[in-house]
Design goal:
Elements: E1 8-11, E2 14-19, E3 22-29, E4 32-37, E5 40-47, E6 50-56, E7 69-71, E8 90-91, H1 106-116, H2 121-138, H3 143-168, E9 170-172, H4 178-195, E10 200-208, E11 220-226, E12 229-232, E13 237-239, E14 243-248, E15 251-255, E16 260-264, E17 267-271, E18 276-286, E19 296-302, E20 320-333, E21 338-343, H5 349-366
Parallel strand pairs: 7-11, 7-18, 9-13
Antiparallel strand pairs: 1-2, 2-3, 3-4, 4-5, 5-6, 8-10, 10-11, 10-21, 12-14, 14-15, 15-16, 16-17, 18-20, 19-20, 20-21
Length: 367
Amino acid sequence: MGFYLRKSVRVGPIRFNLSKSGIGVSAGIPGFRIGAGPRGNYIHMGRKGIYYRRTLPSLADGKASPFSDVASGSQSLLEEPTAPTHDPLAEIDSADVVALVDSSSTELLAELNGKRRKLSLRSTALVLSGVGLFLALVSSFSSQMLVAVLGIGIVGVLAGHWADQLRKTTVLLYDLEDSIETAYQRLHTAATGLASCRGVWHIAASGQVRDKKYHAGADTLVDRKPTSISFSSPPFMKTNIDTIAIEVGRQTVHFFPDRILVHAPNGVGAVAYTALALEVAVSRFIEDQGVPSDAQVVDYTWRYVNKRGGPDRRFKDNPRLPICAYQSISLRSATGLNELIQLSRTDVAEEFAQAVEHLASCVQAIE
């Protein structure tokens, strides 16, 4: 998809506008808005071609701010092994997001995590409305009173929702220099290639195989789950760009123009591009869950193999399995980021890695 830099972002009734002069804020309804910006405060009214706008006096002057064979698993055997056939799977997982702190992102992370911890007024209003409606029902209130209680509850929930949007949302508006915008557009294009893969998986854990005959002759056993690569904004944030989002288990890695943010249910962490170690590799993967249409089959094996690599004929249910060439992307940082993504194609990850490296150099050049 093409990268697009929007000029405005809406948070509830508030709209943030980005212009060459700076950042402005306005609020209102269709036909009537009041705003403040780098050129002063104003009131704007009118619809259908007839408009009225007047600048309002300011209370104070202010400045405008800115990638070995691996098998995906084994199934029930006719002959059960008497000892473990593989080592325990070791998790491939990042540290707690609160430990992922880039020095240049300290203030931003403090704001993001602080707002996430705020009590949800919508949830509170929803609970109170439910309690009120229950008490009204058990108290045999009249139908008019029930409607009134229900109406007040709906208004309270809506008001709480709007208030939460304003209290818990952080707004990031980007006005990018040409070099950064070009580099980020390249990263978006490369990420589109990743997202186009028919198979995308997150590798959550891996372990060494002790007895290969039970695991299709593989050296390593992995735990993987399908995941997605998309273009979206993180929760509790509004930006004028669509960031690249890679889901890695319960966490999501978002690639912004100036940094990487890692979102988890318990908070947000940050990694600088200059601190990111991104590695791409190609592997032979024994596929027992269906071969994606864009994958390349390079060989075959059997679910249970003998010492020569042929089918172990002691097992009746011993299907032939394809071996595919897959590509992987490893994301690591000294602060604890540790994620592994597997792709069904082998021609897309290199461009993504090069785009990340190029963006990192552009960001470093202007710091």
